[in-house]
């Protein structure tokens, strides 16, 4: 018996820290297990375990198990959530993020990448950390946001009177108002049933997100508006980060970078498969002329740039010059 116990302890020590020393951390996100977010999260967990020799274990909780976006951010601030994948709702905690959510701010994916992986993106994350106690580890790419509706939309005029679900983000609310729609902030978990019962008429999200929630079952049209080239951030509670050893901190940062590369490589393949699934289900796509949509939101650009940071807005728009 003594030999068996000793062997177990030695085995644990060989593979990393002993069981008592393992730090078990939690990562939450709102997507389901089929999504690229979840696959990237599992890769991050695997990499952290590998790079810390087992001293840190990351458990992944999909499908809002640890709460919606706001809950996850608040949890990271107090240390009850260790990691999260969060998109634009961070703007409610660090206001300059509001500018990133402006419709038609980024011209294309390359424009977005220049910002998030450049010095301006790094500065924004440093400011967020100082204000909120939430540490930005990496920006992950997403497909552009597209509109789904139950009636054809070919121009901003066709949006009049449409009740559209939007995330609780000022830029989204004001942008869709400027386009003529009636925006309704709502947790995404309520969207399917609200479309099914007619509480709302439309929603907007990247195609993979839309398809994974089976929105094509309750919507007739996929309108290719390309209105936001967005991101999701892998975030970490700074309380948790400071509780790690220096070697563990470095391992987490390395794992985050490698998981970002992994997720960015698979996310657009996921988009293509999701689009084909939606088409196979019978949803009809509508290609629109983007310029009228872009022109309609310029007043919102001016308003939010003045409110949350003209310098940041100009830095982003100047990246295309």
Automatic annotation (TrEMBL):
What is one GO cellular-component annotation here? outer membrane-bounded periplasmic space
What keywords does the record list, in alphabetical order?
Answer: Signal
An example of a Pfam family matching this protein is DctP
Any one Gene Ontology MF annotation carried by this entry is: carbohydrate binding
In which domain of life is the source organism classified? Bacteria
InterPro entries assigned to the protein according to its UniProt record, in alphabetical order: DctP_fam (IPR018389), TRAP_DctP (IPR004682), TRAP_DctP_sf (IPR038404)
Alphabetically, which GO biological process terms does the record hold? transmembrane transport
Query: What NCBIfam families does the record tag this protein with?
Result: dctP (TIGR00787), TRAP_S1 (NF037995)
Q: What is this protein called?
A: C4-dicarboxylate ABC transporter substrate-binding protein
Query: To which species is this protein native?
Result: Alkalihalobacillus trypoxylicola
**Taxonomic path:** Bacteria, Bacillati, Bacillota, Bacilli, Bacillales
């Amino acid at each position: 018996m003594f030999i068996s116990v000793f062997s177990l302890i030695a085995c644990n020590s060989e593979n990393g820290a002993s069981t008592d020393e393992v730090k078990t951390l939690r990562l939450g996100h709102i997507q389901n297990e089929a999504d690229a977010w979840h696959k990237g999260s599992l890769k991050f967990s695997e990499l952290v375990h590998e790079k810390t020799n087992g001293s840190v274990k990351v458990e992944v909780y999909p499908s809002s198990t640890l709460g919606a976006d706001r809950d996850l951010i608040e949890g990271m601030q107090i240390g009850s959530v260790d990691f999260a994948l969060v998109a634009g709702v961070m703007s409610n905690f660090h206001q300059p993020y509001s500018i990133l959510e402006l419709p038609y701010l980024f011209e294309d994916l390359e424009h977005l990448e220049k910002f998030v992986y450049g010095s301006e993106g790094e500065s924004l994350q440093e400011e967020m950390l100082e204000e909120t106690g939430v540490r930005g580890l990496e920006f992950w790419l997403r497909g552009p946001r597209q509109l789904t509706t139950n009636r054809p939309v070919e121009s901003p005029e066709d949006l009049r009177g449409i009740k559209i679900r939007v995330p609780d983000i000022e830029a989204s609310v004001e942008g869709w108002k400027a386009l003529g729609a009636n925006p309704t902030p709502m947790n995404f978990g309520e969207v399917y049933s609200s479309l099914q019962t007619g509480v709302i008429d439309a929603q907007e999200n990247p195609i993979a997100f839309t398809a994974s929630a089976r929105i094509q079952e309750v919507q007739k049209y996929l309108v290719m508006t390309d209105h936001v080239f967005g991101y999701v951030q892998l975030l970490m509670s700074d309380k948790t980060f400071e509780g790690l050893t220096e070697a563990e901190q470095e391992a987490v940062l390395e794992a985050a970078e490698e998981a970002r590369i992994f997720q960015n490589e698979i996310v657009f393949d996921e988009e293509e498969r999701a689009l084909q699934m939606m088409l196979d289900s019978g949803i009809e796509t509508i290609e629109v002329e983007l310029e009228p949509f872009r022109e309609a939101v310029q007043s919102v650009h001016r308003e939010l740039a003045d409110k949350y940071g003209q310098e940041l807005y100009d830095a982003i728009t100047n990246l295309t010059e």
